[in-house]
Amino acid sequence: MTTENTPASPTTPTTDTSPDEKTAAYLPEHTPRISVAELAPDLYRALARADAATRKGLDPVIGELVKIRASQINHCAFCLDMHTKDALAMGESVERIVQLSAWEESKHYYTAKEIAAIELTEAITVLTDGFVPDEVYAHAAEHFDEKELAHLIGAITVINAWTAPQCPRRSRPRSGRPPCGRRRRP
Predict the structure, then answer these.
(1) What is the DSSP string of 120-157?
(2) Looking at residue 15, what is its pLDDT?
(3) How many CB atoms lie within 10 A of CB 43?
(4) Alpha-helical regions (H) of the chain
(5) Which burial class, exposed, middle or buried, applies to 146 when counting CB atoms under 10 A from its CB (0-12, 13-18, 19+)?
(6) What span, in angstroms and rounded, lies between the C-alpha atoms of 72 and 49?
(7) Predicted confidence (pLDDT) at residue 9 exceeds the cutoff of 80
(8) pTM as predicted
(9) Which of 16, 38, 85, 111 is the most buried (most CB within 10 A)?
(10) Where residue 10 falls among pLDDT bands split at 50, 70, 90?
């Protein structure tokens, strides 16, 4: 295929457009509705403490994969932006992050333990049947000791609690936001 037949992507400007026309092609960002951190600071601090507590007993790579997957399911652009950048800063590969939304077709990118965590994340986040299926829980229990499993369940619960106020308030990703700089991958 020649380049003249290939449509330009939003990040590949054509030569016959002005700088204003290039940025005009993007839709405007929406305005956040409220600030939960300002209006309910005790809630915000409680979530931050719960998040910190779950990190103490969980592999940081699995923690970020869980946060990214739950954020994908919940359509939380703010959380996706944050946790993707954090995972990349920890040394996570772009390929594994990209394939996470299609993990069932891309299991070869992940360890059995990571797949068990991703399956449990989906089961807890969606709760379609009103409970976590026995086989999903049993699979996770095969790969995590009881303490790790408790922290994993806590991490999944906390990321879902974080996305709950972010989505209705319409939190938007922050362009140029650096990673949080938490633990780095060894």
Answers:
(1) HHHHHHH-TTSS--HHHHHHHHHHS-HHHHHHHHHHHH
(2) 54
(3) 13
(4) 19-24, 36-39, 41-55, 60-73, 77-89, 94-99, 112-126, 134-143, 146-169
(5) exposed
(6) 23
(7) no
(8) 0.78
(9) 85
(10) very low
Burial class (CB in 10 A: 0-12, 13-18, 19+), 82: buried
Amino acid code (one letter) for 121: T
Residue with tokens 């000791």: 145
Distance CA 73, CA 54 (A): 20
- Helix (H) or strand (E) holding 6, with range, is none
The C-alpha R_g of the chain, in whole angstroms, comes to 19
More confident of the two residues 36 and 43: 43
What letter represents residue 17's amino acid? T
